[in-house]
Amino acid sequence: MQTPNQNYINQIVKKALKEDLSPLGDITTKLLINKKSKAKIIAKQNGVIAGLNFCKSAFKLMGRETIFTKKIKDGKKVKKGKIVATISAKTRTILSAERTALNFLSHASGVATLTDHFVRKSDKKTKICCTRKTTPNLRLLEKYAVKKGGGFNHRFNLSDEIMIKDNHISAEKNFKEIIKKAIKTKKNITVEIDNIKQLKNILGLKFKRILFDNMNLNDLKKCLKLCKDKYETEYSGNVNLKNIKQISKTKVNRVSIGSLTHSAKNLDFSLELDF
Question: What are the structural domains of the chain?
Fold first, then answer.
C-alpha cells in the first residue's frame, strides 16, 4: 500500500481548508487579537489513533509559525481524556484550522478503531481487509487508517489486480473463458463466486485467489475443503462484529469488509485553548 506522503497530505488538506474558508475566510476569528496561543487536542473516547499528520498539516498550512507536537503515534491506542497533541501558534491559526484538523483526525481514527475491533474479534490467522468502498478522494487516508488499526488493504484501485466479479460474469457469460483470458495477462487474479457449482466449474485453473461472496457458513466450509490450499481464500458480504468470529473460525485466509471505511463512526476529539 502507498503511504500518504507530505505532498498528498497537503493537497488533500488544502482542499478541505478552502471548503471551510471560502470565500471570505474565518470572519468570526478575524475579530480576535491575533496573539500567540497554545492549545491541546484531547481524546473524548477510547480508540486507535490515525491521521495525525493530516491534522498537523491543517494548522501548518494556516500558519507557518505553528509548532505541532504529537503526544502519541498513529496506530497506538488512546484512552478517553488523554492529550493527543499540543499546538503553539497564533490564535487565528489555531481557531481557523481547528475543525478541518479534527475532522481528518476523527475520521481516520474512527476507521482505525473499527478495524481494531474486527481484528481483535477474529482468528489471528485471518486477515481483516478493507475494500474500494471509500470516500472519494480520501481512499489513501482511509486505507492507511485501516493499516494502523491492524488490518490489511484489498486492492487500492482497478489497476492493482484483476478481480472478476458477478457483473463481469453476467456481461461475458462464459465464466471460464474470462478467467483463461485473465491468466494470460500474468497478473494477480481474484475470482468472486457465490455458490459451490461455480467453484467446481473453475477448479484446476491456476490463479491466485477465490472470493466467496455472501455464502452461508456451511457452504463456505465445503468450498474451503474443495480448494485444498490451491488458492488463497477470501470471504465478503454482510460481515459484522457479531459474525466475524464464526467466519474467521472457518480458517478462510482473508475477510474483506466494506464497512471499515464506509460506516466507521468518527472518534471524538476536542481542542482546548490554554490561556
Answer: 6-118+264-274 (3.90.1170.20), 121-262 (3.20.20.70)
